[in-house]
Amino acid sequence: MILSACFFGLMAITIRYASRQQHAFEIAFFRSLFGAVFALPLIAVRGASVLVTDKLGFYVARCVIGMLGMMAGFWAIVHLPLAQAIALSYSSPLFVTIGAVLFLGEIVRMRRWSAVAAGFIGVLIIVRPGADAVASGALVAVLAAAMSGMTTVSIKFLSRSEPPDRIVLLTTLLWVPLSLPGALTVWRWPDAATWPWLVLSGFLGTGGHYFWTRALRLADASVLAPFSYVQLLIVTVLAWLLFGETLDAYTASGAAIIVGATLYIARREATLSRRHAVEAPAAGAEPQV
């Protein structure tokens, strides 16, 4: 999940550079197109059978939600300060946790709820609600976060029976036609300087999606969600270095809280894993009668 966050954080930077020439909806299309190209080698490795599924309808519904979330998220990255756009996206762990409990049957205890809540408090400190009137752009970013949370839950559901490579391939391939109609409404051919950013956004997006899907197969969605906060740190620092967006005290304080919550969850889960590893052999060592 940390590798996924790094890839998605760098993708946000490529989107900002590409937005100097292209509309956010076009960037979403090219990210999907080139992302599909970078995912195609998985077919050569796994064989064409990797595309065969009996859950195609679920994939389509999941991809429609994911594409709407992507377009909303890209729009927010283009029109809001990067740190604010990414910070708002981190209301998604709340949706993930609620969805994981309601739809996946995951057990979330008080300590994990507290850590997620602490991370959200850090986000609120960065955004500083009430400092300015809530703009429509901020609402778009929250909408993207809600859809991202729904997508995370759907991926976790699929990962119970579907291999990660199939999820990545079908998702990236379906995103191409789903993203085209929105792009056509604002179409403008990219110039030579913009193409590298569009290609790179596809590579980073597919890489981030690949690691994200792998992570969701290995652990509960509600456990993994807070680790994606690493993306906020990467984007905040790079936005300051590359675009001159100031890293103020509120952003630094909020990021510190988010990191603290993430480190606590990592330590807590490691402790529980060690405990289960010790208890399981002991339970299995009872004498046979």
Structure overview:
With 289 residues, the chain is an all-alpha fold. It has one domain (2-186, 193-275). Helix content is 77%, strand content 0%. The protein contains 13 helices and no strands. Helix 4 (56-79) crosses helix 9 and helix 5 runs antiparallel to helix 7 (110-127). Residues 282-289 have low confidence and may be disordered.
Give the SSE layout.
Blueprint (H helix, E strand, L loop, with lengths): L1 H17 L5 H16 L1 H6 L9 H24 L2 H8 L2 H12 L6 H18 L8 H23 L5 H21 L10 H24 L2 H4 L5 H14 L5 H36 L5
Helix pairs in contact: 1-10, 1-12, 2-4, 2-9, 2-10, 4-5, 4-8, 4-9, 5-7, 5-8, 5-12, 6-8, 7-13, 9-10
Question: Brief description of this entry?
Answer:
It contains 13 helices and no strands. It is mainly alpha-helical and 289 residues long.
